[in-house]
Specification:
The protein is mostly beta strands and about 290 residues long. It has one domain: Immunoglobulins (Immunoglobulin-like), CATH 2.60.40.10. The protein is globular.
Length: about 290
């Protein structure tokens, strides 16, 4: 399928269906945003942000970063998202990278307490300054952005997020018994290419897709099989921009944002899902 789409008057964050209040803090007290959870759960969540106190992190590091991975936790990698989430099925986040990591070799986003812990793996072919997406959160969890540099060292930025109503991965994002659920046209792509300062560019890709996790039951009690976007390839007239492996921890109708040091020209995107279907879109170099 081939779609050519041009949407006017849509800002770069218009597809994120969540509060515009984002935070760069590693953790914060929930009392200003919602009722305080019990002291034990809050203490546990904050402890889990500390990798030295996490029972999960050593195994995650081994599985996703490598058996002998060298890891450095640092605040320069800013994971920007809400402190407290009311709608866990679609949670926007931005990962901003320091200058010395713009030419990284690999990026992985992990949500520790999700049943689907890996969200995305990105291999860049150009300098990238920041990466954004909308994700699912099952429960309170540390969110870890892992960035591998040219020397093979993993730099980790972390963010503690509290979830008011758990179930972003294991409950329906749309309740057919109480609302009209329009699945949209699977594979429809919306691709935008924005100018930024000093010749830099921003890409925004929205993909209409259910991103089924395989953890949700239908109204009749049957498990809905997993079905999700598993790869995204970006290029332009100068060659590849980035290759992504993606997983069902991305939200329904996922949105991906990429800030490039230089604006791409005549951007193309190729998407494949777990059923083997492929979808394509193209955006010429005209200013948006």
């Amino acid at each position: 399928m081939l779609f050519f789409i041009n949407l006017a008057n849509a800002g770069p964050f218009s597809d994120f269906k969540a509060s515009a209040i984002l935070s760069e803090e590693l953790s914060s007290s929930p009392t200003q945003k919602r009722d305080t959870p019990n002291s034990e759960s809050l203490k546990q969540a904050i402890n889990l942000l500390d990798p030295e106190k996490s029972e999960i992190w050593p195994e995650l590091s081994r599985l996703f970063l490598g058996e002998l991975a060298k890891v450095n936790f640092e605040s320069e990698i800013r994971v920007i998202m809400q402190d407290h989430v009311e709608e866990p099925h679609e949670v926007p986040l931005i990962v901003k990278l320091p200058d010395h990591l713009h030419n990284f070799k690999e990026f992985i986003l992990l949500i520790e307490n999700n049943p689907i812990q890996q969200v995305i793996k990105l291999i860049p072919y150009r300098a990238i300054e920041s990466i954004g997406m909308n994700v699912r959160l099952e429960d309170d969890s540390p969110v870890r952005a892992a960035v591998k540099d040219k020397d093979g060292l993993w730099h980790i930025g972390s963010k503690m997020v509290f979830v008011s109503s758990p179930g972003g991965c294991s409950s329906p994002s749309c309740d057919v018994t109480t609302e009209i659920c329009d699945p949209g046209e699977i594979g429809k792509l919306i691709l935008k290419n924005y100018d930024r300062e000093a010749g830099a560019g921003r890409l925004k890709i929205k993909i209409i897709h259910p991103m089924d996790t395989g953890l949700v039951s239908s109204p009749t009690g049957e498990i809905i099989p997993e079905y999700f976007i598993n790869s995204i390839f970006l290029d332009d007239i100068d060659g590849p921009i980035a290759v992504m492996e993606t997983y069902a921890a991305l939200s329904t109708d996922p949105v991906i944002l990429i800030d490039l040091a230089e604006k791409g020209q005549s951007i193309r995107v190729k998407v494949q899902d777990s059923h083997g279907l492929e979808f394509f879109s193209f955006k010429n170099s005209s200013i948006m």
